Amino acid sequence: MDLLTRRKFLLASGVTGAAALVAGGTAYGLADILGSGDDRPEGAGTLVLITLYGGNDGLNTVIPYGDDAYAKARPTLAYPPDQVLKLDDGFGLNPGLAGLHKLYGADRVAVVRGVGYPTPDHSHFRSMDIWQTADPVRPQPTGWIGRWLDTAGGDPRLAISFEPVLPPLLAGATSAGATVPGGALKLPKSVTPQLLKGFGTASAQDTAALARAAGCFTDLSRVQDLMDDVAESAPDETPDDSAEEPGATATGGAAGPLEQQLEQVARCVEAGAVTRVYSVSLGGFDLHADEKGAQQGQLERLDKPLAAFMDRMTRSEKGKDVVVAIYSEFGRRVAANASDGTDHGTASSVFLIGDRIRGGLYGEPPSLTDLDNGDLKYTTDFRDVYASLLRTVLDGEPDRVLAGWKGELDDVWT
Amino acid sequence: MTDRQTVSHVLRRLTFGPTATEVDKAEEAGAAATISTALAHRTAPPGPGLSTGPPPAQDADRDARRKARARQNAELDRWWLRQMAADSTAGEKLTFFWHGHWATSIQKVKSAALMYRQQQTFRRYGTGDTGPFIRAMLRDPALILWLDGQQNTAKAPNENLARELMELFTLGVGNYTEDDVRAGAQMLTGWTVDRAAGTSKLIPKRHAQSPVTLLGTTGVTDIDGYADLLARHRAHAPFLAARFWLRYGSGAAPSAAATERLVTAFGPGRDVTAMLRALVLDPEFPATNGQLVKQPVEWVVGAVRQLGIDAGKLDDKQLKQLSAMMRALGQVPFRPPSVGGWPAGTAWLTTASAQVRLRSAPNLVTLAPAAVATLEEAARPDRLDALARLLVIDRWTDRTAAVLAPAAQDPKKLLTLGLATPEYAVH
Description:
Strand content of chain B: under 5%
Number of strands of chain A: 12
Radius of gyration of chain A: 21 Å
Largest sheet of chain B: 2 strands, antiparallel
Distance between the termini of chain A: 35 Å
Structural class of chain A: alpha/beta
Order of helices and strands of chain B: HHHHHHHHHHHEEEEHHHHHHHHHHHH
Oligomer: heterodimer
Number of helices of chain B: 23
Helix content of chain B: 55-70%
Radius of gyration of chain B: 23 Å
Helix content of chain A: 25-40%
Strand order of the largest sheet of chain B: 1-2
Distance between the termini of chain B: 15 Å
Number of strands of chain B: 4
Largest sheet of chain A: 9 strands, mixed
Strand content of chain A: 5-15%
CATH class of chain A: Alpha Beta
Shape of chain A: globular
């Protein structure tokens, strides 16, 4: 999915999920957010979800270099064993993932192989929809984080995206996460905090719908306060222009380069924000032709900001509660196509990273020869991963959020 | 409710947003005449005249074909936006309703011409008997492509279209069985689309020839037999009544009594217009005032209409700006998120959409100097009333009046704020 398709996916998915009705209109200040009250429970986990749009080639990310079938299927695309960053005797990481490899060495990365869902769909839109709604069967108006938010009280500050459009995964049935593109609300200058609070004030004359429309402004005001507080608490620093990869700008689209998004996340985490889920993304993985160098470049654009972010989290007490999860809508075909690229495939690896993670390789690696129409057969259902994150990081109830789903990853936690 | 409030409520729901002048006329004509006029038969507007440009030949590279497609898509988008903004009747709103009902996306169909063709079917059949309407939709090339009808053959049936047809388009869940889905899919086998000609046709070799038992009837042999069973099914009318109520009535399901009244109006002739008329005349309709959240398209097009912006005179760039607002709000015509159509109700009320409304309001006001002048002409103490009249809002709450009052000295700012109010987000 290139930049265009990624944006189209976001808009095609619609803005769904309602803001929770918040009566009154008292905004929270930093004291409230940081307070030891019930806003953020002590030791509460934080999930940073990184979506790779476009279908990242899983086999050239976590490379089964020990399997002869790998090089055979991809004569021009395969990495020779001496180039991969070894994880064990059979698997290694793409050379573009040096930072991740180092984290793996520190036992902080779980690589879950063969993650997918039944009856795979090769459409970017549909497959991303499946990953974000966590329903492989029926189109759903709500995302899995949105449904968690519904059960967690519906405060939009709990789930924040730094993308321009609300990703469907943050839309719940009765609430929705907030979007804060660029880390600051984009509002006309004339829109003062006072104005937001004014429109957000409840009125006895409100119908139910009108009360919700007003509640949006209160929510917006709370999100703005949160972002202002985060900005205030951040140390003064000159933005590092050299960190901006022009390539990442082009592929990451209006979401801003990943380093900018992760910078916002880091600030919020360090400020002790009430937020429990951050959604960030990187696009540009739909490489049907001349893939090898391009994918490695894309993975570097993921790896460098990710490594810097994890490093920063290590230095902060609050960062120890952060778990990063990285996924894409599908992997790619086992065999290369005639243009030195790969076409849309199925199962792929999911990365889970953080201090709470017991590092290692998990999941049955799919066979490279026993294929389903040229595609890998998935071995771990993606809902197992979600259920595990919901229970362990978000203190949620997986079966409520995932329509009764029972499976979970057990071993990945310390 | 005053007479003015009654006709305002009716017109806010039946049309894409009445102007103050239209409400004046409606108030004078009375509710009954207003409803008749809004629902009167109207001739379809002239088509978009899509540019064919350099033929996107098979040997043209991928990029050139994609560019040609994008140009046509943009032409179609602009054309429909103009039609919606120009229409003071119930016509375009009803076309939009059917678009969200038989929700088909150009993102998979990849043809502006076929999307327009589908819309012509909505216009031609969408106001009358649903029997011929369903028959026509089963032959609709865009719908066939959208729901994988191309892949549905006697040898390898694809049940996608048959399932959605019963679940989302005609009957609703619980009114058919899995056997009906399989039998229905068989009836639809062999219908394929000729993209170049823009037509669909039955390839007999790919069609399952043997008759099936479908929805309790034996010996069904073709799509028309299938379509007629759906139209005559006892679940069809109540299902449609609920769908209309969701978009024209309130977020809550219609009462059993209201459903019954709508079904009776629909009658054995399955008259869509009669059902819609019954809806706005229903004794429960007045209480729905203020209970419906505007869909983004309704918010943008309504603002264009009520601010007196002549969409016919907007240039491509300005129309693109309006499309961008809809996109940012999450609803783009011809691109529903899934076959289930767009969400309804409070789903549209998010912090994200509030931000976009606040950002879009100044841009809309820039296009509407006449509306600003109208407010300017009013004496300062009357400007809140003038604003309510312009935006066809029955009354401001104390909350909103308190925010607006200080802006009364600056008509431009007042109008901008008016568009962003909670009141203007619902209707």
